[in-house]
Amino acid sequence: MFILSLWQVGFFDAGRLAKIQNIWSFLAEMFPPDSSIIPLALSSIYESVVMAFAGTLMGGGLALALAVFSARLLAPPTVRAFFRAVLALIRAVPAILWALIFVVIAGFGPLAGVLALTFYTAGYLGKLFYEAFDSVSSEVLEAVRGVGASRLQQLRFAILPESANYILSQLLFIFEYNVRASSIVGLVGAGGVGYLILALTQSLRYSGLLTVVLILLAFVLAIDFASSRIRARYFA
Amino acid sequence: MSGILEAREVWFTYDSRNYILRNISLQIEPGRIYMVFGRSGSGKTTLLKILKGILRPTRGAILYKGQPTTSGDLAKRAYSVVGYIPQGFGVVSNLSVLDNVLVGALLRVPLLHSLLGQFPREEVERSEEIIEMMGLSQFKYQKVSQLSGGQRQRVAIARALMQKPQIILADEFVSQLDPLTAIEVLDVFHSLAEERRIATVITSHDVHLASRYADQVLVLRDGEFKLCREGGSISEPELITAMKGG
């Protein structure tokens, strides 16, 4: 089956693999990295990080609202079935497609990217959040219900506090992801460093591309490291 | 003496075949401590959930001050005077001690104010008094997750007291505590019964505590009360025999 799959995708097509030599000329053109592009790369990466931050917060807020209506403990069956379907629909659309949709609606630039990341984040986190809400200890809920708390009060005084660590941990995780995803959505014109990568690739400025990729790699590693330390320290 | 809450000929089943409770009758009077003993699966937790109104009896009735709690208003009133402490205490670990105790006042606070965390001054003062009474003042702003088992239990009692209850139902309350802490906690219930006339129903399988604290001892086996006696009139071997059967 594995061999068949490789054959199906053209892995054994000698003609195609012969082009592998192109990689050497591609790599040769990348060196030495072009330092003149550093200021532009930094501002583009900064824009990507800002997009990721805004998209994470807006998407997280939207996810919380959708999760409330999708949780078994908070919403009646028909309401939660509807909102769970909405979340599934949002999740079914990849981030780059959201970016294309919002480039059409809002035009080229970071706004489209932020909106794309917002929707992608909402779909992904919405599911995780409602699952977290539904796994809150039934004893805690019974005790809070037992004092006569309404559903909103149960949410405020039992479900949200009990899920808070998980919610914050997932927000940090999706922020890491969104920093990387913001480069991808930029490829279709939705702002950030992806837009710069696209421009450099199309104009064959590979030495500049290497500079951008190296700086981006350093940023992503630094954010991953900080995020994993925060999660391990506060949310383990 | 008249009962505040009464279970009258209560039967309960989840599947209409296997009855978890069979013909249970119990009258709860002010200021008395009831200890319900039974092995795991004997129906103790189900009985408390029915008394609290979390579960509805399949047959029979729960009466509040002699009236069946079938009408919405009466059920709600009965609901509000019964404090319930589940087996794992049901405290919210990510909230402070003060916030956990204030949860007990939710029924008296307007919805919007409670959602914004704005509790009336008198409720905050009352919760602080209860926290002090429970010996938790130094932990008032500490998260419950940072407290010991005994301290969490006191938070659960404080929250129940914040409801201004006439009855407290405590499920397997002393099973998870070391003997010394269990005695401290039961002393709290004893003084609540004497000073505030709060009735307490405690389920347990620790028979040692029965003679010292219970005004009434009940043994639940296979969903039925097999024994119902005044606290001081029963020995440990009798109690164990009643729990085991045979």
List the helices and strands and how they pair.
The complex is a heterodimer of chains A (236) and B (246).
Chain A: H1 2-8, H2 14-17, H3 22-30, H4 38-70, H5 77-92, H6 95-106, H7 110-134, H8 138-146, H9 151-186, H10 193-202, H11 206-234
Chain B: E1 5-13, E2 19-28, E3 33-37, H1 44-52, E4 59-64, E5 67-68, H2 72-81, E6 82-85, H3 97-102, H4 111-115, H5 121-133, H6 149-162, E7 167-170, H7 179-196, E8 199-204, H8 210-213, E9 216-221, E10 224-230, H9 236-244
Parallel strand pairs in B: 3-8, 3-9, 6-7, 7-8
Antiparallel strand pairs in B: 1-2, 1-4, 4-5, 9-10
Helix pairs in contact in B: 5-6
Walk me through what this model shows:
The complex is a heterodimer of chains A (236) and B (246). By secondary structure, chain A is mainly α. Chain A has helices spanning 2-8, 14-17, 22-30, 38-70, 77-92, 95-106, 110-134, 138-146, 151-186, 193-202, 206-234. Chain B is an alpha/beta fold and 246 residues long. Chain B contains nine helices and ten strands. A six-stranded mixed sheet of chain B has the order 6-7-8-3-9-10, with helices on both faces. The radius of gyration of chain B is 18 Å and the shape is globular.
The separation of the N and C termini of chain A measures: 41 Å
Greatest contact between two chains? A-B, 22 and 33 residues
Provide the low-confidence segments of chain B as ranges.
Answer: none
- Global shape of chain A: elongated
Q: Compute the number of structural domains of chain B.
A: 1
Oligomer: heterodimer
Distance between the termini of chain B: 34 Å
- Name of the CATH first level of chain A: Mainly Alpha
Number of strands of chain B: 10
CATH superfamily of chain A: MetI-like
CATH topology of chain A: MetI-like fold
- Derived from helix and strand composition plus strand pairing, the structural class of chain A reads mainly alpha
**Biggest beta-sheet profile of chain A:** none
Helical stretch tally of chain B? 9
CATH architecture level-2 label of chain B:
3-Layer(aba) Sandwich
**Beta-strand percent range of chain B:** 15-25%
